[in-house]
Amino acid sequence: MLQRILRLLRHRWHDQASLRRALPPQALARLTQRVQASEQRHSGEVRIFVEAGLPTSYLWRRGPLPQIIRQRALTLFGKLRVWDTEHNNGVLIYLLLAERAIEIVADRGIDRRLSRQEWQAVITRMRAAFREGRFEDGLTQALEEISNVQVQHFALAAGDANPNELSDAPVVGEG
Fold first, then answer.
1. What is the pLDDT of residues 140-173, one digit of tens each?
2. Which of 1, 109, 123, 133 could make an SS bond with 89 (beta carbons 3.0 to 4.6 A apart)?
């Protein structure tokens, strides 16, 4: 019980100010532009979701914290409709500041193109940038790596249009 209360306090300690320090509005605007540029090269969709802390309902759940964080990322994958793309090649990059946690959830069309180790390598490189406080750089690098995989497997042919199925702007949640 004490552990849950401490977790709750840690997650409430992080707030909108924490989010703004990690990713100020100018960084969010640049990330939006990078997602737009990426999606002009392939048929996939990429969403970024960053939140300071987990919602209270997640904090009271039983089970290992990594599993709870993964559940949150999967829930957001559904809520943001990342799964609902024509080629099943949507990807969600999820960042939880309170735990310094990163999850990548990829739809089945793109997920089967990379092994779990390759996805984990992308996360490891992001984590290294985040440890140095370079959140925008870490997200940019991950976006580039994901885009390269998308282009390799879902490139647009010359003259093909790619309707934008989902918003390109990163979502910043309150937790």
1. 999 999 999 999 999 988 777 777 889 999 999 8
2. 109
